[in-house]
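To whoever picks this up:

The parser on our side crashed when reading a file containing two proteins. I've narrowed it down to the boundary between the first structure block and the second sequence. Both blocks are reproduced below exactly, byte for byte. First block:
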Amino acid sequence: MIRLFPKALTTVFCLIAAGVTLHASPAGERTLTPADRKHLLTDKFQTSYTSHALPTSVKVLYAAPPLNSPPPSGAKMPFPMAEPGKPWNVGDAVQDTSLPFRLLIFVAVSKDYCLVTYERGGIAYSRCASLFHYTGKKADLRWSGNIYGDFKTLHDVRVAIKTNKYRDGGLL
C-alpha cells in the first residue's frame, strides 16, 4: 500500500482538477461553425483595448459563477479579467489571489457579435478567443478556442482563422 503524505495528496488532487478544468467547456465543445466563421471574417467590428467596450450581456457571462448563469439578483460581480498593462496571475505560482488569471488583449464588437481575446494564465498558459452572438440583454457563446501565435489585432485573429491556426474548445 502506498501512503501519500498530505502535501503529495493535495498536489495530485490539484493536478487532476486542473486536467479536468483544462478540457471542460461549460456548454460543451464550441466549434467554429461556417456561419460564425463568416461573421468573424467579414463583419465590421469596432476594436477596443478595454473591457468597458464589452456589451453588458457578454461581461455578465464572464463574471457570473458558473459561466453562462446570470449573477444573483442585484449582485455586482467583478469582471475577472485584467485590463491591458495591469497585473494578473500569468502562471500557476499565485503571488496575489486578488488578481485575475486572464489578461484582456482586445475586444471587437459588431452589430450583433462580440469577439473577446485574452491571455489565460495558470498551469497551462494559453491565448484565447471567444465569439458571442448578442442581442440586447442576452448573449450566447458561439465559439471559444485557442489561437496560436502572438496576435494583437483583429487582423491577426482573422489571418489565424483563415489559415486554421486555432483550436476549438478553449477555456473561458
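<<boundary where parser fails>>
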Amino acid sequence: MRDMKRTVGPMLQKSIDDIDFAGVLMQILDIARRHHMSIPPQLMLLLKTLVHVEGLGRDLYPDLDIWSLAKPILSSWIKEQLDPMRNLQQLRQQLPEMLLSTTDIPKLLDQGLQSLASQGSRQDSQLREIQQIRADMLNDRRRDWLALAGFAIFIAIATQVIGWLSPIFYILAVLVVVWRTLT
C-alpha cells in the first residue's frame, strides 16, 4: 500500500501535462511483480490502450485532460458495480440455482473420497515398483563392482604369470566382462 501511495501520490498534485503515464504504469507493474500479484490480461490490455490513447491525445490536443473526460463514465460504472440493491437482486436471481446445486454436494464428496482412495492404492503400487527398481539398481551396482574386481584381478594375475597360464587369465578376464554384459 505504501509503495502505491509513493507512486500515485505525486500524480495528484501535478497537472495532466506533467504526468508520464507510461512511467507510472511501469512503476505500478514493478510493484505488482515485487509483491507477486498477478495482473489479468484484460487489465493489461486496457492499461496499454490508455497509455496509447493518452499519448495520441497529447499529440493531437496537448490541453486534453483524459481523466476529467473519463471521470463521469468511470464514476457511473463504479456506482453500478458496487450498487448493493443490484447485487442483492443478482443474488436473489441466482439463489434458486445455487440451492439446487447443493443437492449435488454429497455425490461430489463421495466421488472425491473414492478418487482419493484409488489414488492411495495406486501410490502404494507405485511405491512398491520404485522399491523394486531401487533393489534392482543396487544388485546391478554390486554385480558391476564384482565384475570390475574380477576383471582387475585376472588381468593382474595374467601380467604376473609367465608362460602358458597367462592367456588363460586373459580369457577369464574377458569372460567376466561378457558375464556382466549378459546379466
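After patching the parser it read the second block fine. The longest helix spans residues 105-160. The chain has seven helices and no strands.
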